[in-house]
Amino acid sequence: MLRSISEVRHTSLATRRCCPVKSRAALHEAVFVKHDTNPSKFFDVTLLTPREERSIRVASDQHIWDAAFEQGVELPALCHQGWCLTCAGRIEGQGEVDQADSLAFFPQDREAGFGLLCTGRPCSDLTIRTHQAVEMRKHRLKDGLPSPYSQGLKP
Fold this sequence. Notes:
- This protein folds into two domains: 1-35, no CATH class; 42-142, Roll (Ubiquitin-like (UB roll)), CATH 3.10.20.30.
- 29% of the residues lie in helices and 19% in strands.
- It has helices at 5-18, 24-32, 64-70, 107-111, 133-142, and strands spanning 42-48, 53-59, 88-91, 97-98, 114-116, 121-122, 126-129.
- The chain is globular.
- The N and C termini lie far apart (48 Å).
């Protein structure tokens, strides 16, 4: 168990040197989160892309974008931190996505049915319409929320 901030910093630096951590969320998880011994739950996620409909299996502790990539589905993404909105999708029908790993996700985004696939983890079976960055940026502009890369868009 870590006892101080300096110990956390030292651990973080050591972790980065010996085994690079790919994200802040991964570092947080490696240092602070107690992992239970229960295996992950898996959910069926249907992706409605502009070209096709694809179904993938996603673990409850896995980002949807990562699972899609591993299963050969190409989706847009830029920052992989839940900020830029490039990976935005819209949940069709029932389903829930955990956005705790996102740097900027607002209650208004959830209410409008949006999700960020690069940092979203499924909490149930889902159907998601992908490639919704422009629509999510317009939604954010309309609500006065941060909307990166939205120059020239009107709400």
